[in-house]
Design brief:
Elements: E1 4-6, E2 23-27, H1 32-40, E3 44-45, E4 54-56, E5 61-64, H2 73-81, E6 85-88, H3 92-101, H4 114-125, E7 129-136, E8 139-149, E9 152-160, H5 165-179, E10 184-188, H6 192-196, E11 200-202, H7 204-214, E12 219-221, E13 230-232
Length: 241
Amino acid sequence: MKIYQLGSTFEFPHPGKAPAEGLLAFGGDLDPYRLIVAYSQGIFPWYSDDSPILWWSPDPRMVMKPEEFTTSKSLNQLIRKNIYSVTFDQEFERVMRSCATVVRPDEAGTWISEELIQAFIQLHLMGLAHSVEVWYEGKLVGGLYGLALGKIFFGESMFYHLRDASKFALFHLCRFLHQHEFILIDAQQDTPHLRSLGARTMDRADFLQILEQQKDQNSLIGNWGDGSAKFCTFDFYNPFK
């Protein structure tokens, strides 16, 4: 198995060269434009503090169609009772840091480094990275964040402090994306939790084909919470033009 070392340019080897588990390359940096190039090609960073930056493209890929989100009985009750409220793009950094500090039973530490947080803050200021916040009695109790390119939302991480708060965030994200004609959420890794919410696996080749079709699509750029976001051209395959 060959793992490629990245250089100073933002070029990546073809993701199809990665084995099924997905490790494709190492090195480089987390420059926002490198991240744009990576995600637009189906590649994402995932690494620990004691390793170099590792770049992945697993096969198969976990994805979700916004209209196929599955609500549980408890979540349906929560939605009907209107206990939580939801906002978009109001506390992006707080959501990211909450995702970074939440304790996950099967993981030691976090891949959401300070460097990654700063890079995604820049992507958020560019109108490309977005957050969903869930509130209870004025307190932030759940949320998620990710990157939107074309009509695809690349989901990064979720957190919750109260029951079903992250599912509540995902429910509202799916509703928003469906209303704006997004076709897919990239959930990256296959987990039973994501399957229970309606996600499914897709062959990497099919996923990459969808990404290729997205290069001519406008992106919903701007703040998703204040009505200022607009569909406009962002050449994320050639972001330096």
